[in-house]
């Protein structure tokens, strides 16, 4: 049986059948936006600038790798950066600031990945105001990056980066549950910077000058048990099991194929909690997974488990405009 999201990228009978329900969802979204716009619901401004990195659609668009790269970039420019996140899949207690002893069971997988890759202060919890306040109170920061939270209007933001899959974009352009959209495409024209994952980074802004672009490429492959590192070429033209419990597993599988891997696909639900048997495929082939999945699997003793570290290439116009905008936000 197909999962619902397989119907979101065309106008098919299932999507059309669900379209009336999506109209109700659209009405609820519209009313909520209206209530915040006319201050019937309160939005709160914290004492530091907030940059939200999120999306208007369901499914993996690449926002977590982008958050990691932005944290690195801002740090290289001399800014002190903190990150807040929902902590989906974590158990808390909330709000919770990650440390070297944090686990995915407590914090969620994406925040743990961000913390381990950046070393920046990361606070998680469902209340973004409480998260932001804890981060500001307990750390010296110049600005905050919010991992997701595009629709969390209670927290005022100074800039929105709306991450879009350049290949899938907005699917059939229907709202949930008939399509993948949390908000209508018209949201792009109201605020925010569209940033296309997989766009043409050499061509300046992407898609008719409507947004920016970045590109994700694999860098090294690292063993979960021994921490041994191998180059991409070690696994090229070889058969591998590829495991992905992310919003868009096919993006990971296709990235491996584009780099010469012969892939045996194993797609799992987003934020899936693995057990060791899930990764035993009864042969001696290496098992490659995303870095996000690896933070939940490092406790396993299977030496066939590897994760693929990635690099991000940002377009020059984005870097230039982002640097200027951040300087204005922090220094006035």
Would you give an account of this structure?
This protein folds into 2 domains: 198 residues, Rossmann fold, CATH 3.40.50; 92 residues. α2 packs parallel to α4. The protein contains 9 helices and 13 strands. The protein is of the alpha/beta class. α8 links the parallel β12 and β13. It is globular, with a radius of gyration of 20 Å.
CATH architecture of the largest domain: 3-Layer(aba) Sandwich
Strand content: 15-25%
CATH structural fold name of the largest domain:
Rossmann fold
Mean pLDDT: 92
CATH class descriptor of the largest domain? Alpha Beta
- What can be said about the biggest beta sheet? 13 strands, mixed
Determine Rg (CA atoms, Å): 20 Å
Q: What share of residues is helical?
A: 25-40%
N-to-C order of helices and strands = HEHEEHHEHEEHEEEEHEEHEH
Number of helices: 9
Based on CA inertia axes, which overall geometry fits? globular
Overall number of domains: 2
Whole-Å distance between the termini? 54 Å
Number of strands: 13
The parts where pLDDT drops under 50 for at least 5 residues are: none
Structural class based on helices, strands and sheet pairing? alpha/beta
């Amino acid at each position: 049986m197909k999962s619902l999201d397989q119907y979101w990228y065309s106008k098919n009978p299932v999507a059309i059948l669900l379209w009336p329900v999506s109209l109700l969802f659209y009405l609820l979204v519209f009313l909520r936006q209206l209530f915040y716009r006319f201050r019937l619901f309160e939005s709160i401004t914290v004492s530091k600038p907030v940059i939200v990195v999120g999306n208007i659609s369901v499914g993996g668009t690449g926002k977590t790798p982008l958050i990691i790269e932005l944290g690195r970039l801002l740090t290289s420019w001399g800014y002190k950066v903190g990150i807040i996140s929902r902590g989906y899949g974590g158990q808390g207690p909330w709000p919770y600031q990650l440390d070297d002893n944090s686990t995915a069971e407590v914090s969620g997988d994406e925040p743990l990945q961000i913390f381990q890759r950046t070393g920046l202060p990361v606070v998680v919890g469902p209340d973004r105001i409480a998260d932001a306040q804890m981060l500001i109170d307990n750390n010296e920061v110049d600005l905050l990056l919010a991992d997701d939270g595009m629709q969390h209007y209670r927290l005022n933001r100074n800039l929105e980066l709306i991450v879009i899959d350049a290949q899938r974009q907005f699917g059939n352009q229907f709202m949930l549950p008939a399509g993948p959209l949390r908000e209508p495409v018209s949201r792009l024209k109201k605020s925010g910077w569209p940033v296309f994952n997989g766009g043409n980074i050499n061509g300046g802004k992407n898609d008719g000058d409507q947004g920016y672009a970045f590109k994700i490429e694999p860098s090294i492959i690292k063993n979960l048990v021994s921490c041994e590192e191998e180059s991409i070429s070690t696994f090229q033209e070889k058969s591998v099991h590829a495991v992905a419990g992310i919003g868009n597993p096919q993006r990971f599988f296709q990235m491996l194929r584009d780099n010469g891997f012969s892939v045996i696909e194993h797609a799992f639900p987003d934020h899936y909690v693995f057990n060791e048997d899930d990764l035993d495929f009864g042969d001696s082939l290496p098992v490659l997974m995303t870095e996000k999945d690896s933070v939940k699997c490092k406790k396993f003793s299977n030496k066939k488990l590897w994760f693929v570290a990635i690099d991000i290439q940002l377009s020059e116009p984005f870097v230039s405009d982002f640097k200027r905008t951040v300087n204005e936000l922090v220094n006035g």
